[in-house]
Amino acid sequence: MAVNRPQHSREDVVRAAGRLFAEHGFHGTSMRDLGDELGLLGSSLYSHIDGKNELLVEVIRRGGSMFQDLADDVLATDADPAEQLHLLIRGHVQIIVDHLDEARTFLNEARFLPPKERAVVLEMRDSYEQTYRRIIEQGVGTGVFNAERDPALMAILILSLLNALDRWYRPGGPNDPDEISQRMFEFVTNGIG
Amino acid sequence: MAVNRPQHSREDVVRAAGRLFAEHGFHGTSMRDLGDELGLLGSSLYSHIDGKNELLVEVIRRGGSMFQDLADDVLATDADPAEQLHLLIRGHVQIIVDHLDEARTFLNEARFLPPKERAVVLEMRDSYEQTYRRIIEQGVGTGVFNAERDPALMAILILSLLNALDRWYRPGGPNDPDEISQRMFEFVTNGIG
DNA sequence: CCTACCGATCGGTAGG
DNA sequence: CCTACCGATCGGTAGG
């Protein structure tokens, strides 16, 4: 009897894992759940991957690298600080909207990563936050921002706004991504006062 | 042989559950973990409670009712909209700081509630969000706020800011709660521009 | 609150 | 990718 032919790629498995981890959480998703999602047995997944933890690492790595790439891209422009902040906000919203599963898993499930990989994610987040902080500081320097009291806290608050999007954004909802980023940028620069 | 004497109250069990659910998530916490936390066996917990789900419901109910009470208290004042918003922000920050475990469980684990209880939480959140929206609308009416384009979205953005606090607040950290709420209020009203 | 369990489910493996 | 498992752990119960 020949071994059955694979019907799915490793890529399919990672994507399905992202979907389930985002919706039910890492500990709320069993390998059998994941198998069901793809129409095969839980045990069959091990021909594509080494273990459940590897899937979490892979999904979160994908999520994290998108934000990292965005920060690199924005820093590579010679736009002024206000424009760079606008680009960061627009890009961040776009990532969450376009890659909701990976973003949600990155934002909500990273604490369940093995210690070493978890440390890597914490460094990535810190570096990403520093990008915001430096741009704010530059904007304070040129007078376009008025946050000299605490740019580090302002960076946290802006990221709080952005990262909460994965909790209320619904595809096809009343607000499209461009409108959301525009309103967020206006809120960040002017508040509601 | 007499039955052993209880060393813990139901209250102890619920509080310990809040601690573990907040840190490891509902599905990342076993009844044996919870027993360990209290120095007894997992099976012994069932003399205090009916099941694991009941603990989740109870912890989240406590979290949610604090925010509900805050909204009621603030609406009962005859302060102007800006002052009411300030009170909401200060109260919300205080709740998260003072009851971090219940707040984190309420904010992050409610999706694992049984359907009926989950629906109750969604209603509570919606009602709480409406409180923010109405106060913003009133402030727009009196001219103190400038958000006539979308008060509903502004309410979401303000709550995004507030609810993210449970992710970065560390007891005894560099920012005390009063300072955090003050900076948040300034950010909400003026932004960083 | 413990002893002594229960059936179900977990992540994962050997072999084809 | 399936068959046929494995030991460990899960939420929970009966009885004292």
Tally the beta strands of chain A. 0
The major pleated sheet of chain A works out as: none
Question: Beta-sheet strand percentage of chain A?
Answer: under 5%
Could you tell me which chain pair has the largest interface and how many residues each side has? A-B, 39 and 39 residues
Quaternary structure annotation: homodimer
Q: Tell me the structural class of chain A.
A: mainly alpha
Q: Name the poorly predicted regions of chain A.
A: none
Helicity of chain A, as a percent range: 55-70%
Task: Write up what this structure looks like.
The structure is a homodimer of 193-residue chains. Chain A is 69% helix and 0% strand. Chain A has 193 residues and is mainly alpha-helical. In chain A, helix 1 crosses helix 2, helix 3 runs antiparallel to helix 4 (81-98) and helix 4 runs antiparallel to helix 9 (177-190). The model of chain A has no long low-confidence stretch (mean pLDDT 96). The A-B interface holds A 25-28, 82, 108, 112, 136, 139, 144-147, 149-150, 153-154, 156-161, 163-165, 167-168, 175, 180, 183-184, 187-193 and B 25-28, 82, 108, 112, 136, 139, 144-147, 149-150, 153-154, 156-161, 163-165, 167-168, 175, 180, 183-184, 187-193. Chain A binds a DNA duplex (16 and 16 nucleotides) through loops.
Please tag this protein with its features.
mainly alpha, 193 residues, 0% strand, DNA-binding, elongated
How do the helices and strands line up, and which of them pair or pack?
The structure is a homodimer of 193-residue chains.
Chain A: H1 10-24, H2 31-38, H3 52-76, H4 81-98, H5 100-108, H6 115-142, H7 151-163, H8 165-168, H9 177-190
Helix pairs in contact in A: 1-2, 1-3, 1-5, 3-4, 3-5, 3-6, 4-5, 4-6, 4-9, 6-7
Chain A binds a DNA duplex (16 and 16 nucleotides) through residues 1-8, 30-32, 40-44, 46-47, 51-52.
